[in-house]
Amino acid sequence: MISVLAALAVCALIAPAVIHWIGTRGFYILALAPLGALIWVISHWPAPEADRAVVETVSWVPSLRMDIVTRFDTLTAILSVLILGVGALVLCYCAHYFDDARPRVALFGGEMVAFAAAMFGLVISDNMLVLYVFWELTTVLSFMLVGFYNVRATARRSATQALLVTTFGGLAMLVGIIMLGERSGTYLLSEIVSAPPTGVYVDIAIVLLLIGALSKSAIVPFHFWLPGAMAAPTPVSAYLHAAAMVKAGIYLIARLAPGFSATASWQIAVVGLGALTMVLGGWRSLRELDLKLILAFGTVSQLGFMAVLVGIGDANVAMAGLAMLVAHAMFKASLFMVVGIIDHATGTRDIRKLARLGHRLPVLAVTAALAGASMAGIPFTFGFIGKETAFASVWDTGALSPWQAHTVDIVLLVGSIITCAYTLRFLWGAFGRKVRNTPSPAVAKMHAPAWAFYISPVVLAVAGVIAGFVSGPIGALFEPYAETLNSYGHELEHLALWHGFGLPVIFSIIVIVGGVIAFLGIRRIRDRVFGFRPLLNADRIYDAALRSADTISLLLTRNTQRGSLPVTQGVILCTAILLPTIVLFLGARDQLQIDYDATAAQYVVGGIMIAAAIAAVVLRNRLAATLVVGITGYGCGMLFALYGAPDLALTQFLVETLTLVIFVLVLRKLPAEPEKRHATGFKPLRALIGLAFGAMLVVIGLYAASARSTEPLHVDLPEAAYKYGHGANAVNVLLVDIRAWDTLGEVSVLIAAATGVASMVFRNRRFGAVPRVADAARLQAGISDTDDDDDPIPPDRTTWLLGSGLRDPRHRSMVLEATTRLLFPTMVILSVYFFYAGHNSPGGGFAGGLTMGLALVLRYLAGGRYELGEALPIEPGRILGAGLAISATTAVTSMFLGAPALSSAVFEITVPVLGEIKLVTALFFDLGIYLIVIGLVLDVLRSLGARLDVETTMARTAVRTRNDSAAIPAESDEPTAENVPTGEERVAR
Question: Any alpha helices (H) in 487-599, and if so which ranges?
Fold first, then answer.
């Protein structure tokens, strides 16, 4: 199972390249991925005997009980067939729905395959925490797919709405998962359901889980996001909103039903809200004029129907629920694709603009009729079998009291009548003659769809009819799951076309006759009922909730955030002082153990750091204050060295140097000194807060060190690092092996920081790689012999660096250029040495990346932005992405070999000349860190260095242009020494 999931993930990664290379016909190739997984599912179908599920376990984060445990049983197999089978057909459908010129279509292909992988991962996950990871992946991918037409405001709004609603439900679900898992002592769904815990605490956890399920499956009151999501392309609706994403909540309800369906909160949330959703969704579909919205509200109705059936907790009702689950996927996906073909051919989905389309597209009309028959519950279709089974089993169920069961069955009957009515309305609206004897303009001007466009909807529509005739064998596949539920004294009924004359037959006749009557009287119903404005509109309530949240946030911000950095920092520091101090005084305190055994050098360094900190507070010049702050950092590195931690000292020195450079780059845009202010009355208070914060840190640190009752771990760390991490540098082994999860999270934060810096500078989007000398040449750049002064600048074309020739000669330093020319290769070699030797000596990927970053800083300072582009002509985002991909791939590779994530292996190879080399796989993880640090430095230099250089030059050029326009007489066009721009200014122009 995990191998199949990994294969789908790999296919998702390469899918954009396939579409980009082949075009939209590449969707046929992408369809092979879910098709191959479907073949695997069918060939490994679980044995019919109970408890014969296939289980696979891979250790992931054992300390959090977050191992990857997959379970393949009957329910998983059923959902997998829908996810993968319908997914393959929808991908084939995409080959004709999109054209090659459509933007983002290549990325769309990757997102669709990734969604199939995420849904497959969701249904095979037995660990609830892992299930939640896939749950949220489907949410994110749904946001991207619904927002495919991102230039449309409606698409962006709908995608955001779906994201917010399902994420809200997902967060509630996460809390419920943690509560249920901690109370049960396990996070495995199979173990929890087999021995369900009880109590009010568990009931609250189940309600939170159900909030996630109901929001995902668009059950009232979370139903409104699904119709809005119809702004997505039709293939998204046919897949996510018919067969995949919306079924995730139904799947979770079905998973939990054997253990928790008897609780009162469950019956209210699932059965009550599900029945309400069925009626409300169908009722809303009767008033829609857009074919897609008719199906959307119909989907809401059917999801409520399925929630009731799988949520009651009766074995026979569950058989009906699974039948409807499968039938709905077939007929609804087919109908959505039919709508897509209509829209593609005619350019409209409005039933008022479609007349006599059935005469022009008879094959499509027959396809829609077959799928609609299954949706309406017409005999001989699989949808008819599911509804008849539901009517019979709900009426006699022992899971509810008789009056409850009969009430629910009558509600389902009413909902089914409405379903039949909106099905007829859909077919009439799409293909009917209406009152016209000629086709409507949209139909008359339509183009004929390609024959291959029909394949996917035809296959699903015909399958819904064929399944009705082979319902017995199909029902036998459902029985192992149904047997996990209570049958309440009834024998498990088999699915069949005919069980004899009885209540189900009467109900089916009522559904068909009532549906026809409701359809014929739809105009009168619309005039009498739909003319009134509804009392409650979930979409308007959602908008009002967002506006209220904005208002509250503005009020809160206005009263707590006045825009004053000292006030904000003071609140943070006071909180950090008071809370730990209160805890310290209320809790038990051990005797302080203070070690005064320090060398004279350490006292000297500490004194220098204190003096530098005081100077940073006193000095007004920003650059001077920055430099003395740097002294405190270098002093910290010196203390590391004096305490025998060369690796930490090296990293601290490198980080401090790089930080100073970044500070200086930022200070270029600020005045040399801050503005003088007269409100100085709070200086003593600020000093008091600063001293109190420092004292609190010292006291808390001393008490924390004194409270240690066992031998510190660092005593055994060097031996453990060499034994398990195969490295003599304990610090590096700790980072890339023992605590590699922490490191992976930290480098992800580094990428976020780089993105944040770039977003503040570039505002809208990144501008690719740093500009190179060739870019300047294309802009007709050159060296000016004049500047702002009246005296011409003598030309100086001696260059040690490629980009220095484009700089103003007055701003060049030949000594710095020559030194950079000599030092840069040495620093690069030193960087590689630190990276490679860091596992056994001071260094590592972080130190090596910082060294390489300093080399880039040197090239930039010596030669300017064009020299930086020549030093590393690669877009920083690509370096950051490659680094994260390498580290993440290294982290999970060991899982596919049967070992926990981030496990290390060692290989000893003999290389000619070099001799025997020991290679540890953690080196590849460190390589990712190395690239991320380099990408971070390059991104910061490009943002705070090169980009600000461009803005400064453009501003100076604009000023010179205005001055030149005012100074040059109108009759003179001859250039003077004052108006000839410099090379950089010409490039900027």
Answer: 503-520, 522-528, 538-560, 565-586
What local confidence, expressed as pLDDT, does residue 161 receive?
Answer: 94
Q: What are phi and psi of 906, to 5 degrees?
A: -120, 135
- Residue 296: per-residue pLDDT: 96
Q: Which helix (H) or strand (E) holds 916?
A: strand 915-920
Spatial contact of 86 and 119, defined as CB atoms under 8 Å apart: no
Task: Output the pLDDT for position 823.
Answer: 92
- Six-digit token string for 649: 């000292």
pLDDT tens profile 926-948: 999 999 999 999 888 888 887 77
Same domain membership, residue 596 and residue 474: no
Split into its structural domains, the chain has a count of 3
With respect to residue 189, please indicate whether it lies within any of the assigned structural domains. Answer: no
Q: Is residue 722 part of a domain?
A: no
In a domain, 465, yes or no: yes
Same domain, 781 and 861: yes
SS3 content of the chain, % helix, strand, coil (to 5): 70, 5, 25
**Which runs of E-coded beta strand occur in 277-397?**
none
On whether both 505 and 568 belong to a single domain, the answer is: no
| Per-residue pLDDT at 768 | 56
Query: What's the pLDDT score for residue 981?
Result: 46
Q: Long-range contacts of range 799-805, CB-CB < 8 Å, 24 or more positions apart?
A: 801/859, 801/862, 801/863, 801/867, 801/870, 802/773, 802/863, 802/866, 802/867, 802/870, 803/773, 803/863, 803/864, 803/865, 803/866, 803/867, 803/868, 803/869, 803/870, 804/862, 804/863, 804/864, 804/867, 805/773
**pLDDT, position 897:** 75
- Sequence-distant (6+) residues with CB within 8 A of 506 are none
Q: Is the peptide bond before 684 cis (omega within 30 degrees of 0)?
A: no
pLDDT for the residue 105: 94
Same domain (yes/no): 515, 615: no
- Say whether both 699 and 815 belong to one domain: no
Last residue of a domain, one of 511, 529, 547: 529
Q: For residue 19, what pLDDT is reported?
A: 94
Distance CA 430, CA 150 (A): 28
Amino acid at 660: L
Contacts (Cβ under 8 Å, ≥6 apart) of 265: 203, 206, 207, 210
* Structural domain for 382, as ranges: 321-529
* Residue 490, in any domain of the structure: yes
Q: Which of 483, 514, 529 corresponds to the end of one domain?
A: 529
Looking at the DSSP bridge assignments, the partners of residue 57 are 69
Is the same domain home to 630 and 777? no
CA 268 to chain centre: 32
Rounded Cα–Cα distance for residues 103 and 229 (Å): 20
> Residues 52-60: contacts with CB within 8 Å, 24+ apart?
52/480, 53/190, 54/1, 55/126, 56/1, 56/2, 58/2, 58/895, 58/898, 58/900, 59/895, 59/899, 59/900, 59/901, 60/130, 60/895, 60/900, 60/901
Please list the ranges in the chain whose pLDDT falls under 50: 51, 535, 780-795, 970-989
Where is 57: in which H helix or E strand? strand 54-61
Is residue 580 domain-shared with residue 509, that is, in the same domain?
A: no
Same domain as 578, residue 509: no
3-state SS, residue 112:
helix
What amino acid occupies position 37? A
Whole-structure pTM value: 0.79
Instruction: State the pLDDT at residue 779.
Output: 56
Geometric angle at alpha carbon 966, from 964 and 971, rounded to 5°: 90
Quickly count: other Cβ atoms within 10 Å of residue 518's Cβ: 19
Contacts of 513 (CB under 8 A, 6+ apart): none
Candidates 807, 939, 817; CA nearest to 874 is 939
Q: How many CA atoms lie within 13 A of 918 on its CB side?
A: 11
The length of the chain in residues reads 989
